[in-house]
Design brief:
Radius of gyration: 22 Å
Strand order of the largest sheet: 1-4-5-8
Shape: globular
Distance between the termini: 36 Å
Structural class: alpha+beta
Largest sheet: 4 strands, mixed
Number of strands: 8
């Protein structure tokens, strides 16, 4: 692993920054500040189309699939810059769903889905969690029954999903369903692409403590072509775990952490309303120094995961370690920020006197969500024990 960017990678980093300087508008930032109101036809979707026009959603895809073939390091740099600027870039549709379609999908799957994903026109919500399954994803009960043949038949889908984030602005579901109810729970699962505007699909909002909107989704006799199946029937667990490993890798990018600590260092140098300059306190300086060093560690972890992907390996244990570290670091940054800012740190983003527009108050409330998103940290510690250290499963 090379710890320095080469000339081409630095030029790419500058190109991304120039794009962001031009296209991150006040209107986009205003819409993002109301993230519970994300919609399909707003500033965010217009921004996505601009990214699609650049071909950047297919940045690291092979050229034969319509990508630019630049590789995971380039994508990691792009995502880092987008996160530093606080705007959404390639989401899990690009970073985890599309790679699974490339690896396991039929020729028809690839022809039908990859091009609209690369253009930013197809956005997937992932239908994993269910009301009765908790963190045990393999206990899912949403059923899909095949009527007809795999060539010209239809899947009839019934069930419910929860924590279906982004469904209100998505076009499709990457939906995990049970296709063999008699098989052991990790078998008999398949993945089917379902258009969200199909009859029988209902999306209802769920609002988290942070103000973040997620959803519950209901599927009532939803019918989709049999050819929307990804890969082989009843082999979906493999595709789900592969997509989750890639999703965790995407979630662990440290760009937003770097920005948070940079902003916190700046705030620490300024006097608060009570006249106190936080940076004059050696305890505050020591805590900030620890955070700054930990962000550097998280940044290197991100490059490690990208380097493994560059070698054709889907990192599993590595991204689990990274996801735990970054999500817990995000929580520590938020806690230090509120201590540093004093009572003003509790002011929300709609309050005029809120420091940094209430950014750290929001970070404090959203940080816990990222400790269980894409698999709770407790589940990931099991993954590290079992996959990384060959320890036995306790049969969860």
């Amino acid at each position: 692993m090379d710890f320095e960017l080469d000339t081409e990678q630095r030029a790419w980093q500058e190109e991304v920054r120039a794009f962001l300087r031009e296209h991150v508008t006040p209107a986009l930032r205003a819409e993002l500040a109301e993230h519970d109101l994300e919609k399909r036809d707003g500033e965010l979707m217009a921004f996505r189309r601009k990214i699609g026009e650049k071909g950047w959603f297919g940045l690291n895809w092979p050229v034969e699939h319509g990508g630019l073939g630049l590789g995971p390091i380039f994508q990691h740099l792009l995502v880092s810059e987008f996160e530093y600027w606080g705007v959404p870039g390639p989401d899990l549709t690009v970073t985890s769903v599309a790679p699974m379609i490339m690896r396991h999908g039929s020729d028809r799957n690839k022809a039908e889905f990859l091009t609209p994903i690369a253009r930013g026109e197809m956005v997937c919500a992932v239908g994993y969690s269910e009301p009765g399954a908790g963190t045990d994803l393999a206990s899912l009960r949403t059923r899909a029954v095949l009527e007809g043949t795999m060539e010209d038949g239809e899947w009839v889908i019934n069930g419910a999903k929860t924590w279906n984030s982004g469904a209100q602005r998505s076009t499709h579901e990457w939906l995990c369903v049970r296709t063999d109810p008699d098989a052991p729970k990790h078998r008999g699962i398949s993945v089917i692409i379902v258009p969200i505007d199909h009859p029988g699909v209902t999306i209802r909002p769920l609002t988290a403590w942070s103000g973040y909107r997620t959803n519950e989704a209901f599927f009532d006799d939803v019918r989709v072509p049999a050819t929307n199946l990804i890969g082989e029937v009843n082999k979906g667990w493999r595709y789900i775990t592969g997509a989750l490993d890639l999703e965790r890798g995407a979630l662990t990018n440290a760009g937003d952490l770097r920005r948070a600590v940079d902003d916190l260092l700046e705030l620490a140098r300024q006097p608060r309303r009570d006249g106190v300059v936080p940076a004059n306190d050696p305890t505050v300086r020591r805590r900030l120094a620890h955070l700054d060093a930990d962000v550097e560690v998280a940044t290197l972890m991100g490059f490690e995961a990208a380097s493994l992907l560059d070698e054709g390996v889907i990192p599993s244990v590595e991204v689990s370690v990274e996801k735990i570290f970054t999500s817990e670091l995000r929580q520590r940054i938020a806690e230090v920020a509120l201590d540093l800012l004093g009572p003003d740190g509790l002011l929300g983003h709609r309050t005029a006197a809120a420091p940094d527009d209430g950014r750290f108050e929001r970070l404090y409330r959203i940080a816990p969500l990222l400790r269980f998103g894409a698999g709770t940290n407790e589940v990931l510690r099991d993954v590290i024990a079992q996959r990384g250290h060959a320890m036995p499963s306790y049969g969860r």
